[in-house]
Amino acid sequence: MPFGIDLGAPINTALLLANIYFAQGIIFPKVSPPSVTPTDYKQSYSWMPKSHPPTVIFETFTPKTLAKYDGRDGGRVLLAIKGMVFDVTAGKSFYGPDGPYGNFAGRDASRGMAKQSFDVDMLTPLDQPLDKLEGLSNSEIDNMNGWIDFFSHKYLVCGKLVENTD
Amino acid sequence: MDGLLRTDNATVLLGISLGVVYLLKSYLTPGHLVHPLTLGKQSDVERVRQKGESAVYKNYGWSTGIGMDAQLLYRPDKDVKSVVDLAKLDADVTRTLWSSKISNADLKTRVRALGSGFVREAHLNPEESNVLLLLNDSLDFLISDLALASHNIPSFTISSLSLLSAVLDNHPPSAIICHIHFLTHVLELVAENHEFSHHTIIVVGEGDLPDAVRKVPVKVLWLADLERKGAKGEPVEAKPTNPETVFSVAFYPGPNNELRAASLTHMNLTAGVTAVRRQLPLVNLAKEDAVVSSHSLATPYGRAIMYTALYEGASFSTSDSTAVFQDGETHHFLAIRSAGDDIVKSAGSPNPTILFLTNPELARLSSAILAKAKESFLFWMAWRHKLHALQQGYLSKDSAWDAQVFATARLATLKQASSSLRAIVAAGGGPIEAAAMTPSRIALSMPLIFAHAHPLVAGPVFSSHPLDLQDFPAKAGEAQDKAHVGPPAVNVEAKLAGVDDAAVEGGASPVGEVVVRGPSVAVPLGSDIEQNSWLPLGEKAVVQPNGTFKVLS
């Protein structure tokens, strides 16, 4: 058979074009950058994440404003110990409104943490001044500090609790 | 049907050739040097932020291993408590410092002798006297610095000549060390000021003293004499130093040319050395290296670079552009000179392996190399191939295209340094354009680190990953996009103040004033800010979603 490329045959033409395409890719590689910055590392080496890592603003809460965050409306669940407000939304099953420790949601849990009790009488009513933690023994204070350590490592400190202003 | 799917020998051959070409293309496409996933999260970001501020950004090295042993953030090794420990004078090393070959044993003897000379002959009192070092970067500067530090005598340095009279007025030193060429100028200024009876002037160099000496009642001593006399007799014992004591005050000009100063403690410098060592994580500075720095020793960053080289046992030198004092004339250094001249050292010195340049010098160097490379007719092909490899994350000095085009250009520009250079760090002298990053990388084809330094921080503030080769399209409307300088240095925490909360909550990148904290951040002189508390640097920056910063002013 004569050795020649029969371009009349579609398969040969297709293969020839494919050869030319890849060879051209080797000799003249594509260097034009994308017009829009890629947002996925699989798309391109030069990529930028679509958004910044999420952050929460450190807020100052009063007992009245903190009470809104009890998780009942599906929002964040916060609780306070010794003036530090923790975001315990991740532990909603415990600290949320339906959980075993739900009494603490949106409230100052300091006394309860110290006395290891989840009763409602550990909580101070919203319109009264903050619990000054009087009448607690040293071991109870240690217990409370232990809970503060536990919460600091597991959950985010997203605010501080101060007295009501109104 | 048969006619359409006709195959013959040519089909087989084309099929084989297609397979070969396809495999060749995959084989020749280079892989990335650093996985792009890691470049998407270069800082450790706190999840909580204060109102009006961005989150606090830390380097990953902080929380992985090194953070566990907090001591390692303050010093490169637990026994390095002071600047003199950094010099590691007990190690058996011989190296070239500013074209003089000197062993550590000789250096130690000279430092001891000069220290004794300062205390005994020049009557400088530890912890009470201050010495103004008006020397250009040289071995004499280093020995004087170490001698003063070992006896707890704070030194003053100025980074600009315009500050000299202000320093003499506001912070009169007990003694001034200067070169004989500069002596007349110093005597004039001292005569204008009042308390000159307290001044002692220690002269470096040789020659005849100018006549002006007789007209001004100051005591003039020779540094060489002090060293000689200090070597005779009993050496004065140095008391152990507390890392928190001030060992040097670095004066620098503020934005309105007013006098500002950074109070450097031993801890600031040891922390600065830790940070500089970690700027070169994959390069591994060792004693075979020769470091050339364009950062004057009068600046904290320049001092940290020198002490890092000393700590590692490497040779060290500074380029001529750092000279502040020139033969009594008051003009500054940045003379226009051929790009490689600063870097090429005279015969007898080791060829530089690591350069710490300023941004304008880097720009000059890379444009000189590219201009030379354009003379080759293969330049456009070589550029295209190297750019393609760079976009996949790969860069190499030894590729075939380099051998054809870029190696000769580098040889012509850098001369004997072109084969020895391993890495370049660019910081200071104004921000660099983002569009200039890729051409510099291709021209140099070696690890290029973009960093940011500040006169109040010993060590870098921000420093990019050496193998970060990412390049982004310029955003519409931002005509002059600045280059990013990477995440914060290993022992620096950074945040941005004065940030628009509404914009940030909406997803925009925070823009604000840089505020830093860390053991290498020095306390401004005379302020009541404490060490390791937040210090605003007076510069504006933006942080990108991948944790890298761009300094805008």
Automatic annotation (TrEMBL), chain A:
InterPro entries in alphabetical order: Cyt_B5-like_heme/steroid-bd (IPR001199), Cyt_B5-like_heme/steroid_sf (IPR036400), MAPR/NEUFC/NENF-like (IPR050577)
- Entry's Gene Ontology molecular function annotations: heme binding; metal ion binding
Q: Where in the cell is it found?
A: Endoplasmic reticulum
GO cellular component, as recorded: endoplasmic reticulum; membrane
Which SMART domains does this chain map to? Answer: Cyt-b5 (SM01117)
Pfam families annotated for this entry? Cyt-b5 (PF00173)
**Keyword field:** Endoplasmic reticulum, Heme, Iron, Metal-binding
| Cytochrome b5 heme-binding domain boundaries | 61-162
Spell out the family assignment given in the record's similarity comment.
Answer: Belongs to the cytochrome b5 family. MAPR subfamily.
Instruction: From the Swiss-Prot or TrEMBL record, give the protein name.
Output: Cytochrome b5
From TrEMBL, chain B:
Quote a single Gene Ontology cellular component term.
endoplasmic reticulum
The highest taxon in the source lineage is Eukaryota
* Molecular function GO terms recorded: long-chain fatty acid-CoA ligase activity
Q: Note the InterPro entries from the entry.
A: AMP-dep_synth/lig_dom, ANL_N_sf
| Residue ranges constituting the AMP-dependent synthetase/ligase domain according to the UniProt record | 101-522
- Sorted alphabetically, which PANTHER family does this protein's record hold? AMP-DEPENDENT SYNTHETASE_LIGASE DOMAIN-CONTAINING PROTEIN, LONG-CHAIN-FATTY-ACID--COA LIGASE
Q: What is this protein called?
A: AMP-dependent synthetase/ligase domain-containing protein
Give the originating organism. Schizopora paradoxa
Lineage, broadest ranks: Eukaryota, Fungi, Dikarya, Basidiomycota, Agaricomycotina
